[in-house]
Amino acid sequence: MTSLEKDPAGGTTTATRPILEARNVSLSFGSVRALRDVDVTVAAGEITALVGDNGAGKSTLVRCFSGVHKPQAGEILLDGEPVSFSTPEAARAAGIETVHQNLALVEDLTVWQNLFLNRELTRFGMLDRKRMRTEAQKMVAELAVNVPEVTARVRRLSGGQRQAVSICRAAGFSSRLVIMDEPTAALGVQETARVEQLILKLRDEGHAVLLISHNFDQVMRLSQQVWVMRAGRCVAGRRTDATTGQEIVGLITGAIPG
Ligand SMILES: Nc1ncnc2c1ncn2[C@@H]1O[C@H](COP(=O)(O)OP(=O)(O)OP(=O)(O)O)[C@@H](O)[C@H]1O
């Protein structure tokens, strides 16, 4: 898909070629049908928002993208090729990084140690601490991340600074898609603004960003594409500039059928 197309619900869908696609993805947990024939696309250089009420299936879908869950039906395509990730490491190796809601950083390690956690650099079989520190400094500087020192322990950082380190970690290592599940839910106003700047920066650098958010203002401000989920189905896709917060709320609740 290289140009704007109309979706059956009347909205427009992805404007550029998707790097990631879910096609007819279904997944049940026992009798709970968490995902039913979900079609979603994510394009490079865009922020794609995934919205829906509690339990709509958003986290389950992104966990399929990040190698935590395996769809029971349908397929996931990366650059148009079907992929099947059996672990989060496999998804990461393919360039899909996730910034978790619960900030998966190790408190007692430094910023640079967290940035290189599970992908430590070695030299002659030994940890190359000096190079990791230098590289971490570069990563932080490139994203203009507001952290005191890469040698500071994460325990000392504020919520916003921690989230910035998580995003920095996800943006590094040549990731192509960064998935963010409620990245600002736990943050204050100023910290939220800083993290939003970082998200925009990622997009402007050409990363694809998939953003789960319950904050409609944020979705309308940051995203270019919105997918709406309801009770396990993807009920609508809209270009953000062709919709309104009111329409999105209606699609989420079902007041607008989608
Ligand atoms: N590991 C699991 N085992 C059993 N049921 C699950 C599991 N994960 C999710 N579910 C169920 O699947 C459905 C979709 O949940 P999911 O977490 O994907 O929703 P969500 O849209 O991310 O919600 P929220 O906004 O509250 O995070 C829910 O009914 C949930 O209870």
TrEMBL record:
Keywords: ATP-binding, Nucleotide-binding. One of its GO terms (molecular function) is ATP binding. CDD domains: ABC_Carb_Monos_I. It comes from Nocardioides zeae. Residues 20-256 form the ABC transporter domain. This is Sugar ABC transporter ATP-binding protein. InterPro entries: AAA+_ATPase, ABC_carbohydrate_import_ATPase, ABC_transporter-like_ATP-bd, ABC_transporter-like_CS, P-loop_NTPase. It comes from the Bacteria. PROSITE patterns: ABC_TRANSPORTER_1, ABC_TRANSPORTER_2.
